[in-house]
Description:
The chain has 234 residues and is α/β, with parallel strands linked by helices. The protein has two domains: 7-129, Rhodanese-like domain (Oxidized Rhodanese, domain 1, 3-Layer(aba) Sandwich), CATH 3.40.250; 152-233, Rhodanese-like domain (Oxidized Rhodanese, domain 1), CATH 3.40.250.10. It is built from eight helices and ten strands. The strands form three sheets. The protein has a five-stranded parallel beta sheet with strand order 1-6-5-2-4. It has a three-stranded parallel beta sheet with strand order 9-8-10, with no helix packed on it. Helix 4 (94-105) links the parallel strand 5 (84-88) and strand 6.
Amino acid sequence: MAAETKFAHPELLAETDWLADSLDDPSVRIVDCDEFPAYQRLHISGAVGLRVHHYLKGEDDVHLMGPDQFAETMSQHGIGSGHTVVAYDGMGGLYAARLWWALVHYGHTNVKVLNGGFRKWFEEGRPVTSEQPHVERARFEIRAGSNCLSQLDDMREAIGRDDTVIWDVRSSAEYTGKDPRQNKHGGHIPGAVHLEWLDLTQPPARSGLLLPPQEMRAKLKEVGITPEKLVLVH
Length: 234
């Protein structure tokens, strides 16, 4: 029972107390993942702001940056292979999770998402500023990452499999097709289960503070997402 009250991988999260104690640690690189104008207005002291699209899009403006572009972008922002990266945003964790995923995809697993994001940090009266730190260029190297990127063929092959769950984390309106969001076709992949990503966070909306582990597990189990299954998320 005790295990159910704890996250399986707490190292993937940074709590505000830990980050406050690590502000002066040169091995920690804090990254504000919001749109750059928001970063310019106010951000966590010492954080660097991403001067690229918050989804880290490549030249096709759709997919993730390729390895060379991603490595150069990280290096320019002072994010090196030896850094512990802490990603945060003011959008409930949406953009911070994107950076976390991209870094893991390219082999940098020493990365955390700030639980509660900028909102929790600000409400606790932690240090914030509009000043931008001087950050030296770093060396980011692409390494063999975990297999955390699904391709279209993976989705096709997963349809109807008992050992795999296709998890649609979009809004209910997108899932049902009521809101096609400028796509040619509305709706969802056949067999996909729906649980919006925001439903795994505590109120108010976009707080970025995750639900307690036991509550998250219960919500996931309700839609058939259990530890023994392969989960494809979109």
